[in-house]
From TrEMBL:
<dbReference type="GO" id="GO:0019005">
    <property type="term" value="C:SCF ubiquitin ligase complex"/>
</dbReference>
<dbReference type="InterPro" id="IPR032675">
    <property type="entry name" value="LRR_dom_sf"/>
</dbReference>
<dbReference type="GO" id="GO:0031146">
    <property type="term" value="P:SCF-dependent proteasomal ubiquitin-dependent protein catabolic process"/>
</dbReference>
<protein>
    <recommendedName>
        <fullName>F-box domain-containing protein</fullName>
    </recommendedName>
</protein>
<dbReference type="InterPro" id="IPR036047">
    <property type="entry name" value="F-box-like_dom_sf"/>
</dbReference>
Length: 521
């Protein structure tokens, strides 16, 4: 080996000795390529092994002999261990030394009386664990050993009982009491509570308990005050329960900041649900009720009950003008809004939202129309002078926020917006497929050059992500240079096509490697 080759290799080894460099590179490599990198040299092996062993997922490796043999050498490199329901974790206990002692995230297999001692042992040898998901097989049995081990996790931040069919209120009460100093997030995703030992949560409730009165609205009943817990985030996605369960849980979490009921279509929310929830959890600022069956009036009441909302997700709901009006009037500090494919709210309220909510950073509003008359007028005037490939207006024009009266400080940054224009400029008619036609029945095209329509977006100084998925677009090198100069915080572009946008992709790789390219490439 020549001296120059040896010097180059040493420089390369020093570069890959930095964990941050390897981690960043690994995001664009598959597992097979990463494994090949680890075999290049001894130095590379040392650098890439922590990435290879960082996450063990799905449990398939347990039946692989080579994995079993390597586990004894590299088990301490595992940071995230996700087991499936019937995995046997006894392989993690070696007679010679303790394996797997540096976990931060653990998804345990189903816990039974037969394996709870092993599960408890694994928890005790990972005292720095932050994220734990468990499922208990038989709620009638005693799991004192496991509960004691959970209670000793002084840094546990998130606890999940996802798809747990047998959890009892006494078990949850005990665990939360032991972990109250550190625990901040609780999850019950995918649980069918209607026929579940937890029921409506009456045994867990405190202060105000939700009670049902047949034939009328529900009512609240004063009960004894119990210990409250410091839970800030509650995730109840894809669950089936009565609304009383949500209210009774909330009575113990007065500091609750984030609530998700996403895809919980089997929960029947009454008219009084928003006000009763606000009594128990007045500090909620992040709310996700996407894919639920709450109507427009119910959503509006929910928004009014929490005027301090910062993020609101209501995709695939019956959100309409009442809800948007409530957002405009009450949620001036909204930063994230997802009204993707909702109940066709009017463009007027979307426009008002953009004009009033100056803190908005992300807006996902696919299939929601807004008046883009000024943009179309500019595009029409530039048609004769611009020969670039154009994109029709019947698709999403550009997935970023726009308002004819933008924030004077130019702070808009957002997600998907704009489809067809419901309030077309004078003299234009909508065609059969949603395209906009001029007085001569010619289709109006939106030019993606920034000398026309998109020049109106120059003030999006905080724009972070530009999404072009499912959008016919024509962005050339001049446009991407313009973006780079005018959107200083742009860090991600989605939906570029390797074949159609070859020059743009190459320019980004050569000049702006800090901008992540993701999507159809």
């Amino acid at each position: 080996m020549s001296a120059s080759t040896a010097t180059a290799q040493r420089s390369r080894d020093k570069l890959f000795a930095l964990p941050e460099i390897c981690k960043r590179i690994s995001r664009s490599l598959d597992n097979k390529t990463i494994a090949s990198c680890s075999r290049v040299s001894r130095a590379w092996n040392t650098s890439w092994l922590p990435i290879i062993w960082h996450t063990i997922d799905a449990g398939q490796q347990w039946h692989d002999l080579s994995f079993q043999e390597s586990l004894g050498k590299h088990g301490d490199l595992i940071r995230i261990l996700k087991c499936v329901r019937y995995d046997n974790i006894s392989l993690l206990f070696n007679a010679d030394h303790i394996l797997c002692r540096n976990l931060v995230t653990l998804v345990l297999p189903m816990t039974t009386l037969a394996n709870q001692a092993d599960h408890a042992r694994l928890l005790r040898q990972n005292p720095l664990l932050r994220n734990l998901s468990l499922c208990i097989w038989d709620a009638s049995s005693r799991y004192t050993i496991l509960i004691d081990a959970i209670g000793d996790l002084r840094f546990l931040n998130r606890l999940a009982f996802d798809e747990n069919k047998t959890l009892q209120t006494s078990t949850l009460e005990t665990i939360l009491s032991r972990c109250n100093d550190s625990l901040r997030e609780l999850s019950f995703k995918g649980t069918y509570f209607i026929k579940h030992p937890f029921g409506t949560g009456e045994g867990f409730a405190s202060g105000l308990m939700a009670t049902s009165d047949s034939g009328s609205l529900s009512k609240d009943e004063e009960i004894e005050i119990k210990e409250t817990f410091g839970i800030l985030s509650l995730y109840m996605d894809n669950i089936a329960c009565m609304q009383d369960l949500v209210l009774n849980l909330g009575s113990r979490f007065p500091q609750l900041n984030s609530l998700s009921l996403r895809e919980s279509v089997e929960v029947n929310f009454g008219e009084d649900f928003p006000d009763r929830l606000a009594k128990r959890c007045p500090r909620i600022k992040h709310l996700d009720i996407s894919y639920t069956d709450m109507d427009d009036a119910g959503l509006a009441n929910l928004i009014k009950a929490f005027p301090g909302l910062r993020t609101f997700h209501a995709a695939e709901t019956r959100l309409g003008d009442k809800s948007l009006a409530a957002l405009v009037e009450g949620c001036r500090y909204l930063t994230v809004l997802d009204i993707n494919t909702t109940y066709n709210p009017g463009g007027y309220f979307v426009q008002r939202l953009l004009e009033r909510c100056w803190e908005l950073r992300k807006l996902d509003a696919w299939d929601v129309s807004v008046n883009v008359g000024q943009m179309m007028e500019e595009a029409r005037r530039s048609r004769t002078s611009d020969t670039r490939t154009l994109a029709s207006v019947d698709s999403s024009i550009v997935q970023s926020g726009y308002s004819s009266q933008q924030d004077p400080q130019g702070r808009w940054a957002s997600g998907a917006l704009f489809q067809e224009d419901m309030d077309s400029p004078q003299g234009y008619e909508p065609g059969s497929d949603g395209e906009v036609l001029d007085e001569d029945n010619n289709m109006i095209w939106i030019d993606y050059s920034f000398s026309s329509g998109l020049g109106l977006l120059a003030r999006l100084k905080d724009l972070h992500t530009l999404c072009l998925h499912s959008t016919s677009h024509a962005i050339g090198v001049p446009e991407i240079v313009w973006m780079s100069r005018n959107w200083p915080n742009l860090r991600r572009i989605e939906g570029l096509h390797e074949d159609e946008d070859e020059e743009v992709v190459q320019w980004l790789r050569d000049n702006r490697p800090d901008i992540e390219i993701d999507g159809d490439i």
